[in-house]
Structure to design on (967 residues):
């Protein structure tokens, strides 16, 4: 069962020099009960993609496609409808999780301010839940009565995770939540996310990272984005054992050794730079860096085709309708 | 808890500042070419009988050449703690009495002007910071206001409202034909004399508060915690509420920082309106080289500003958890 | 790389509308102060001087009428000549030309402010640098002094010092204003120095065995130029205001006319009550506009060098 279905979604940024096509015709779905990973070099459109589901503020705009979440198209909701869905059904742990809480408000007040706007009426019930969840992430329930400035960075991160998931959203977006952390803390965060799933607090998670090796630990299925387009979607284990797209292969090769000190590794181990999203080439977006580049790659865009069981990739090497 | 340490630290800093100010007060005339105090007494020929004796005695106590320098310094302090600030030749009265009678006038225009301009300025600044359409014309206006010398705006008020329109009195604190007292006529006269001096400070001060608030609110509305609230479906109102709170807290510290400039403004403004506060004392003392009065007024202003700073520091620690967190850590 | 981007930012500043407005306005007043005297036959004190034939003596011609702006008046000089003159901004209580006083007063005020800003900025830079660069006890003591100076309202200190001085030249006034204005600069420069001191390029220079002075002037200073310029601008506007306030209280230069002294005389001669607006509106307006201009210069620069304050799309 799909919780979220993205069809040919296009999210652009308006700039004086023309639209930046940060997400350009992306399709995938997120199933109930799974952790869906999204990976790719920094700047490939991961944040744009997930944030657009929640909030599109200028210069970001919706340029086409749909995002069906529980039967409703997120792109067509009115401002008020969208506001109601946020937090209660669709929530996010942002990249800046450590600074996400207003430093001068007690955590219980922040939570209550938000819960009240989503129709909650019993303050003690919400606060009780907050303390319970804080204990669950191994924070003292007293943290509820503290100001975020009084907590350490790691504690703030965990508190933010609790706040984000407090109202049991169906879909939780975690955008680079592990990027700024050391390996031990990364592990804690990932365990917590698992825990949220097991407890049924959230139904599904979209886990965004530029760190491919990390996905092995958490994501059931993974999507690789390149320059605003889908390169490959597959169950994570299969993606790692038998990658289909040349870009995915290069990414995996650029990891020093799976499981060993991947913290320092970026996806920049591949020579060349991503193309400009202002005027992307009409063919395959990877052709400027691809070792297998062919003539038709420059002209024709490769379609996303099924290359195995539940495994899709977009590359002319893998065939397509006109082969 | 570290609050005690914070308090002790602040007290120490202000105590040292006070010490420094008094020392300057004592030292300055000695550093100037030719002892100005000596010159003042010598040149003051129109002294009444007995006055010269009081003066000479005071002078000898204070600057007695037969005493060593450190002794003179100690004497100065002893007198200070007895509330003895010397004798004004100009007004022919003890300096402390003069200051005591002037200070209420300063308070009565400065306090309301600062408090109300703080409220109004922050309010206008927040509007400009939030709404770009208003910002376009409000911001230059704020800067123009903040650029005006207080006394010049006071002159404009006197000229346009006092002289041209004749709506309000603009000289002194009340009608000189009245005897101060708790009667309706006096209160009416006092209030009507109060409006223009108050306005001149109030309006100009609005400018700098509004500028500060505008910049803070722009900064805060873009802060991560506001983005987070928005992503979790907070209404516009809630986001603004959180941002306001964080923007207005630093404006309390702004009170302390602006105080010096506001005192300067008040001094010059009093001169325009001939309003009988410390400013008039300072001016007259400076112009007629009445050094005891000058030193006394200087000390009074410094003490008031230090006290205000101290209070603001303490209050701020209570209302902003960020400050509290920083001193409990350290 | 760093140098190139500074140049780029400088060009960006020239394109910033706020900077342009402020800079243009300031430039206007500077040019006005320079060429303004060309349009009037009067000297800085507002009097008409006639050179006596055959000597170097100049004799002033006094008139006693208070005239509104753009009035013509026929003066009879010491040697009996009749001269028709134009009072662009009228005359004051003593019949002196206000326009001439204004132009020369503007010169004095700009000169005082420039001098005071230079003194205050240099002093502040030195103290801030030393505190930030040396650190330790030096830093603590210097910063304590800075904080003390920050709390004492500088205007009363200025009044106190000025009152003890019998004769005051513009330069003396600039000196005492500069001597009370530096703490803000010191504080700002110290924090900048602290943040720059541990950057990589400074560490490299230190490893390479460069002397402290070489590091300060070769590595740290160039990275702070724009910042120091902004601080200097604020010193300048503070000095204009402080100088005007002192003058207005009656503690201005005893040897020259300035914008503040014009206002002081206007008040002393009851110009407000008599409605001689041309005597007190222009000087105050000029002070206000100069300070506005400086604000805008600073604002423009801040937007260029500290983009967080820049509003999207502007
Ligand atoms: N406000 C913006 N205006 C114009 N372009 C933007 C804006 N924000 C992001 N972009 C561009 O959109 C692309 C995708 O950015 P982002 O979604 O943040 O990438 P990721 O999260 O994968 O690192 C980048 O090339 C970036 O330059
Ligand atoms: S389509 Fe061509 S350029 Fe693109 S990945 Fe495949 S082989 Fe490389
Ligand atoms: Mg991102």
């Amino acid at each position: 069962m799909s919780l979220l279905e993205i069809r040919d979604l296009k999210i652009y940024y308006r700039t004086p020099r023309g639209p930046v096509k940060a997400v350009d015709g992306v399709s995938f779905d997120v199933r109930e009960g799974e952790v869906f990973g999204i990976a790719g070099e920094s700047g490939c459109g991961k944040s744009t993609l997930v944030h657009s589901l929640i909030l599109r503020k200028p210069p970001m705009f919706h340029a086409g496609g749909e995002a069906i979440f529980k039967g409703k198209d997120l792109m067509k909701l009115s401002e008020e409808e969208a506001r109601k869905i946020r937090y209660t059904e669709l929530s996010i742990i942002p990249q800046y999780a450590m600074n996400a809480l207003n430093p001068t408000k007690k955590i219980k007040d922040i939570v209550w301010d938000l819960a009240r706007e989503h129709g909650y009426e019993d303050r003690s019930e919400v606060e009780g839940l907050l303390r319970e969840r804080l204990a669950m992430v191994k924070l003292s329930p007293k943290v509820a009565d503290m100001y975020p400035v009084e907590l350490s960075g790691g504690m703030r991160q965990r508190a933010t995770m609790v706040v984000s998931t407090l109202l049991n959203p169906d879909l939780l977006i975690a955008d680079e939540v592990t990027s700024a952390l050391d390996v031990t803390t990364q592990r804690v965060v990932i365990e917590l996310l698992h825990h949220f799933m097991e407890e049924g607090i959230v139904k599904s998670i979209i886990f965004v990272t530029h760190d491919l090796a990390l996905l092995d630990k958490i994501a059931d299925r993974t999507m690789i984005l390149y320059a605003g387009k889908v390169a490959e979607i597959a169950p994570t284990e299969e993606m790692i054992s038998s990658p289909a797209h040349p870009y995915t292969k290069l990414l995996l090769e650029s990891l020093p050794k799976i499981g060993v000190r991947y913290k320092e590794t970026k996806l920049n181990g591949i020579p060349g730079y991503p193309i400009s999203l202002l005027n992307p080439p009409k063919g395959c977006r990877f052709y400027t860096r691809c070792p297998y580049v062919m003539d038709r790659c420059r002209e024709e865009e490769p379609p996303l085709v099924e290359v195995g069981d539940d495994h899709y990739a977009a590359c002319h090497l893998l065939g397509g309708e006109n082969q | 808890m570290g609050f005690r340490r914070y308090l002790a630290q602040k007290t120490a800093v202000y105590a040292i500042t006070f010490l420094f100010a008094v020392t300057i007060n004592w030292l300055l005339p000695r550093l100037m070419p030719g002892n100005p105090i000596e010159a003042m007494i010598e040149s003051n020929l129109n002294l009444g009988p007995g006055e010269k004796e009081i003066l000479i005695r005071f002078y000898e106590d204070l600057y007695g050449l037969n005493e060593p320098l450190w002794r003179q310094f100690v004497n100065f302090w002893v007198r200070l703690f007895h509330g003895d600030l010397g004798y004004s030749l100009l007004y022919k009265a003890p300096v402390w009495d003069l200051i005591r009678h002037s200070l209420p006038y300063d308070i009565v225009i400065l306090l309301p002007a600062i408090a109300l301009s703080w409220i109004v300025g922050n309010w206008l600044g927040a509007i400009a910071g939030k709404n770009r359409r208003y910002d376009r014309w409000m911001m230059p206006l704020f800067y123009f206001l903040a650029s005006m010398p207080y006394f010049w705006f006071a002159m404009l008020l006197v000229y346009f409202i006092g002289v041209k329109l004749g709506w309000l009195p603009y000289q002194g604190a009340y009608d000189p034909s009245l005897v101060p007292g708790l009667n309706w006529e006096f209160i009416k006269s006092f209030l009507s004399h109060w409006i223009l001096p108050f306005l001149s400070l109030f309006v100009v001060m609005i400018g700098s508060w509004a500028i500060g608030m505008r910049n803070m609110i722009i900064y805060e509305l873009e802060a991560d915690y506001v983005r987070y609230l928005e992503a979790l479906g907070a209404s516009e109102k809630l986001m603004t509420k959180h941002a306001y709170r964080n923007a207005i807290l630093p404006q309390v510290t702004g009170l302390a920082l602006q105080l010096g400039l506001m005192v300067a403004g008040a001094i010059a403004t009093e001169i325009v309106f001939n309003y009988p506060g410390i400013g008039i004392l300072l001016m007259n003392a400076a112009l007629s080289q009445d050094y005891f009065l000058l030193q006394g007024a200087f000390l009074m202003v410094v003490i008031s500003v230090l006290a205000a700073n101290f209070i603001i520091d303490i209050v701020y620690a209570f209302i902003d958890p960020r400050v509290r967190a920083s001193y409990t850590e350290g | 790389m760093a140098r190139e981007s500074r140049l780029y930012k400088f060009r960006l500043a020239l394109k910033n509308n706020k900077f342009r407005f402020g800079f243009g306005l300031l430039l206007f007043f500077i040019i006005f102060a320079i060429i303004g005297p060309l349009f009037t036959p009067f000297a800085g004190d507002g009097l008409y001087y006639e050179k006596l034939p055959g000597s170097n003596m100049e004799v002033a011609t006094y008139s006693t009428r208070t005239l509104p702006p753009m009035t013509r008046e026929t003066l009879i000089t010491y040697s009996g000549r009749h001269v028709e003159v134009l009072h662009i901004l009228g005359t004051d209580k003593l019949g002196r030309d206000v326009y001439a006083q204004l132009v020369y007063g503007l010169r004095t005020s700009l000169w005082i402010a420039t001098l005071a800003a230079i003194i205050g900025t240099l002093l502040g830079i030195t103290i801030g640098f030393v505190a930030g660069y040396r650190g330790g006890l030096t830093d603590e003591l210097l910063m304590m002094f800075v904080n003390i100076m920050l709390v004492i309202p500088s205007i009363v200190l200025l009044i106190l010092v000025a009152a003890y001085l019998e004769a005051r030249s513009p330069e003396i006034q600039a000196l005492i204003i500069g001597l009370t204005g530096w703490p803000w600069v010191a504080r700002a420069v110290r924090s900048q120095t602290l943040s720059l001191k541990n950057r990589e390029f400074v560490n490299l220079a230190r490893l390479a065995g460069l002397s402290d002075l070489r590091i300060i002037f070769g590595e740290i200073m160039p990275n702070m130029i724009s910042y120091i310029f902004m601080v200097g601008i604020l010193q300048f506007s503070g000095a204009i205001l402080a100088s005007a306030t002192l003058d207005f209280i009656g503690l201005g230069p005893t040897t020259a006319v300035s914008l503040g002294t014009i206002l002081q005389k206007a008040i002393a001669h009851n110009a407000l009550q008599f409605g001689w607006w041309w005597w007190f509106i222009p000087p105050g307006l000029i002070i206000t506009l100069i300070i506005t201009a400086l604000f805008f210069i600073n604002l423009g620069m801040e937007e260029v060098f500290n983009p967080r304050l820049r509003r999207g799309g502007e």
